[in-house]
TrEMBL record, chain A:
InterPro entries: AAA+_ATPase (IPR003593), ABC_SmlMolc_Importer (IPR050093), ABC_transporter-like_ATP-bd (IPR003439), ABC_transporter-like_CS (IPR017871), P-loop_NTPase (IPR027417), Sulph_transpt1 (IPR005666). PROSITE patterns: ABC_TRANSPORTER_1, ABC_TRANSPORTER_2. This is Sulfate/molybdate ABC transporter ATPase. GO terms for cellular component: ATP-binding cassette (ABC) transporter complex. The lineage of its organism: Bacteria, Pseudomonadati, Pseudomonadota, Alphaproteobacteria, Rhodobacterales.
UniProtKB/TrEMBL annotation, chain B:
Part of the ABC transporter complex CysAWTP (TC 3.A.1.6.1) involved in sulfate/thiosulfate import. Probably responsible for the translocation of the substrate across the membrane. It is found in: Cell membrane. This is Sulfate ABC transporter permease subunit CysW. The complex is composed of two ATP-binding proteins (CysA), two transmembrane proteins (CysT and CysW) and a solute-binding protein (CysP). It comes from Gemmobacter aquaticus. Pfam families: BPD_transp_1. InterPro entries: CysW_permease, MetI-like, MetI-like_sf, Sulph_transpt2.
Amino acid sequence: MHIEIDEISKQFGVTAALHPVSLSIPSGALVALLGPSGSGKTTLLRILGGLEFPTSGRVLFDGQDATGLTVQERRAGFVFQSYALFRHMTVFDNIAYGLNARPRASRPTKAEISRRVTKLLELIQLPEVGGRFPSQLSGGQRQRVALARALAIEPRMLLLDEPFGALDAKVRKELRQGLRDIHDETGLTTVFVTHDQEEAMELADLVVVMSMGRIEQVGKPQDIRARPATDFVRDFVTA
Amino acid sequence: MSDATLQKGTTARFRSATEESPLARRALIGVAFIGLAILVFAPLIAVFAEALADGVSAALRSLANPDALDAIRLTLTIAAISVPLNAAFGIAAAWFITKFDFRGKAFLITLIDLPFSVSPVVAGLCIVLMFGTNSLIGGWLVAQGFPIVFAMPGIILATLFVTFPFVARELIPVMIEQGRAEEEAALTLGASGWRTFWTVTLPNIRWALLYGVLLCNARAMGEFGAVSVVSGKIRGQTATMPTTIEMLYQEYLSVAAFSLAAVLALLALLTLLLKTALEIRHADQLAATHRH
């Protein structure tokens, strides 16, 4: 799905989290929103997911105005920073949550839900953990379960907030490849937020460098490295 | 350093930094037990001993008295009405305070705590002033045949006021600690707000809710001050267990007073037992939800 961000701004009280920003994300791209904390990258991601509403501007999905769509109507697979798994449910029930939440008419049968959850557990290479609780998983496993839960709703796009932030370096590298594989397999337009320039450069097709609520530069990783548009970008990507 | 002393050093049991010496530990535990014995166990035993001073049959006879039975019935009815109401109010207040950002939040939290700092007698007097026959609202309500003061609605209002903070106070810290991420996750997965509440929020707060409800219940059954002001203590009509106990005691009917007091204490012990049983039964879930 093609995402168009048209002059979006966001005010929290008197502080501006986003000055009007515009961005076009081609269908099927893997995009990194890169910037230090307070740069507005998470706010932009939450606006795409419908968790936050812009003060002004529009969001277009495949050319259709989606600004007023509720979070449920967006059908965005969202992976939260600390994963936000439902701690009182098993991994299986976590992944099945979105399917069970559908209105009766479009809800799959129990057997179908079970089949899909099993398939997703295989996709994230954790076929054995369905019966466990989130507290019994390692950080890397939790992240993959959160990804499977987001994918279960057959989302129109995948949004990830610092998906590797809470993991150690080795697991981080493995899961980067995991996300790349899942993206390539599903072909979903994927946007992830990170403050780690190496991660953004290595994983993304398109990097959006942000600072102080503004977009500093948009480009392919090698282009940003070769031709930083501003002093901020130069400092940030060489740091 | 020789090998022998090194070995001795490593095999000796080391204390962790936060652990006290055995002597200090025993002294602290001793103080706690003595305190509990003097302040909790001894009075409890005294209540039962006084109740049974003239034998079991005398105690049971005093409880079979219609006034005593009415008092028990009234107290249970009031708890049955006010506890669910305050559970609902408490959940709503905690939800509002923890899931939304708005001006005056701190003020609202202070307001919720108000019943803890106001003397119950004052609370009772406020209700009498608001709804008594001489007040505007009270006069009108009495004319409609719906008196508040010296009747059941007044007792319920007083109980609601006094027990209002219990559920909200238990829930607010738990809900603040848990944050909003799980609710947001449920919403992005397509769940409605209502479904999110029942399947995500409520299961996450159920233990705090249970503690709040149990405390609320204990206080609702035991409340004396506010209720004694608004109820008028009409025997067989508006006299609750605590007010009846006080009246019996004033009339030197000590067996009757302490028998009823023993029943009240037993009801409290029953709630504690219920709580412990639930904790044991769901120990695995408790562990799973509390670890991070």
